[in-house]
TrEMBL record:
Organism in which the protein naturally occurs: Ameiurus melas (Black bullhead)
PANTHER family recorded: B-BOX DOMAIN CONTAINING, E3 UBIQUITIN-PROTEIN LIGASE TRIM65
InterPro entries hit by this protein: B30.2/SPRY, B30.2/SPRY_sf, ConA-like_dom_sf, E3_ubiq-ligase_TRIM/RNF, SPRY_dom, Ubox_domain, Znf_RING, Znf_RING/FYVE/PHD
Source superkingdom: Eukaryota
Protein name: Uncharacterized protein
Length: 391
């Protein structure tokens, strides 16, 4: 079978999965809104939600006496005896997912090996500097960037590689070793850091305290929206709940993902004016929020290139990033974040609290092109989520 036909068959097979249990349909039924589910799955959902029930996908209200109609078309496709029936569809899905998972796993393992070598070199340099009594700055050694990368990738491996065969177990064991190396490196870095606050120009375009309260008050609120084509394939945006979350059992897309990292770019694009949007971060273990030029590359990570700016919270730090240059922030990471963008004045600032109670950081930028909001949910851990409340 040629590649285009394989993609078509795989796409069709993914449409034969129940959105509730993520398995092949069993006794498929259709609601009035048009969405289909396994008979038992939707009955359980209706029983659990009681009289005020909604469609799990589109949130359309369901009447207490709603009829569940058998989906004859899906049932017929599932039982196509000429091509092997249900077993054939299950085989298509299993083989395709294993193929994609194996390729992704191998790519990430190769990258982790490279990161491990870099960390070993950093350790050797740490020991040399300690012996010589020399202080060093983050511009010379970027330990946190490496540890953040390893954290994100190892989390992703736990998620996407968890169902792989025992053949990969020896490779995955290297992740544990990397974690130990990272912790040792972080400890050495903490003992020997010096302050970077004396020279703002050395921080890759960062400077604190730039946007006035008056400017912040005159900004226009933006209700962000997202489309699947601008996100990583494991991210889904629930419009009714204003929530973006990681899901493992997402239907595979035939199109190329916008980003290889677990990132998503908003549909809104800004060239002029003052704008702001809010992010609820309490349900996400690691995240980054900022803006990037619309031509941000597929392989790029937020804050790691000249085309993007952000603040980031990981398990080891809370900091601002631009062009792979990190600036540690003294404040505690907020559970609710406000991003203020002044395209006319060239300011991007980050505030804590629903009403912008305190400024966390301000970045002065001469924007050369339109920018869009971008978000990075570290790893692909199920349940990681960012919400976008409306004031």
């Amino acid at each position: 079978m040629t590649a285009p036909y394989e993609d078509i068959v795989t796409f069709v097979a993914n449409q034969l999965k129940c959105p509730i249990c993520f398995d092949m349909f069993t006794d498929p039924v259709t609601l009035e809104c048009g969405h289909s589910y396994c008979l038992q799955c939707i009955k359980t959902h209706l029983k659990r939600t009681g009289r005020k029930s909604n469609c799990p996908q589109c949130r359309a209200e369901l009447r207490p006496d709603c009829k569940l109609h058998k989906n004859v078309t899906i049932s017929t496709i599932l039982e196509l005896q000429e091509v092997g029936g249900r077993k054939m569809w299950e085989k298509v899905l299993t083989e395709r997912e294993e193929e994609l998972s194996q390729d992704a796993l191998q790519s990430k393992l190769d990258f982790l090996k490279q990161e491990m070598e870099k960390i070993k070199m950093l350790q050797a340099e740490f020991h040399s500097l300690i012996q010589n009594g020399t202080c060093f700055t983050r511009d010379n050694i970027r330990t946190y960037e490496s540890s953040s990368s390893v954290e994100m990738l190892s989390s992703s491996l736990d998620c996407e590689g968890g169902s792989q065969s025992a053949d990969n177990s020896s490779s995955l064991s290297s992740v544990t070793h990397i974690d130990k190396v990272v912790k040792n490196s972080e400890s050495a870095s903490e003992e020997n850091r010096v302050s970077l606050s004396e020279d703002p120009d050395s921080l890759g375009g960062f400077a604190e305290g730039g946007m006035s309260a008056a400017t912040a008050l005159s900004a226009e609120f933006v209700s962000l929206s997202f489309s699947p084509g601008l996100c990583h394939r494991r991210l889904v945006f629930l419009d009714q709940r204003r929530r973006m979350e990681v899901r493992l059992s997402m239907p595979l897309r035939t199109r190329v993902c916008r980003f290889k990292a677990c990132q998503c770019m908003a549909e809104q694009e800004f060239t002029t004016g003052r704008h702001y949007w809010d992010i609820e971060t309490s349900a996400c273990s690691g995240w980054a929020a900022g803006v990037a030029y619309t031509d941000m590359g597929q392989d790029e990570r937020l804050g790691r290139s000249k085309s993007s700016w952000c603040i980031e919270r990981s398990s080891v730090s809370f900091s601002a990033w631009h062009d792979s240059s990190e600036t540690p922030l003294k404040q505690r990471h907020p559970s609710r974040l406000r991003v203020l963008l002044d395209m006319d004045a060239g300011h991007l600032s980050f505030w804590s609290g629903a009403d912008g109670e305190a400024e966390l950081f301000d970045i002065r930028v001469e924007f050369r092109a339109p920018v869009r909001p971008v978000f990075w949910l570290f790893g692909t851990k199920p349940g990681n989520a960012l919400s976008f409340p409306i004031p």
